[in-house]
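Open question from group meeting: does this chain pack into something compact, or does most of it stay loose? Before anyone orders reagents, we agreed to write out a predicted structure and look at it together. Recording both the input and the output here so the notebook holds the full record.
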Amino acid sequence: MPKTLTLNNAARKKVPPTMMPSPKEDTPSVKVMHRRAGPVNNTAKKHDNSLKPPATLVKTWLWMARDASDYELKKLGKNNIIRIFGSVESAHDYIANGGK
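Structure tokens returned:
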């Protein structure tokens, strides 16, 4: 038979109403601000060379997209390439040009 847990008397005690804070008194009014979805840096262009990752990282993504045995890893590599370069061919060109 499994053991059942019981609360001791101290845990069962109720807090007197005078000790509990009133929600109206102690809760500051909070205005919720919603951030627009989108890139954090709005001035960044998707295919700007100054924002390209190092060639070694791109080679890793290419390997992931092409040769990884795990589907999630393959998908992650391809998604990173598409997000930065727009296509796998552009990523290959980037590597062929020495990462420039």
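Observations to bring back to the group:
The chain has a mean pLDDT of 74.
The helical segments are 9-12, 23-26, 55-67, 71-85, 88-96.
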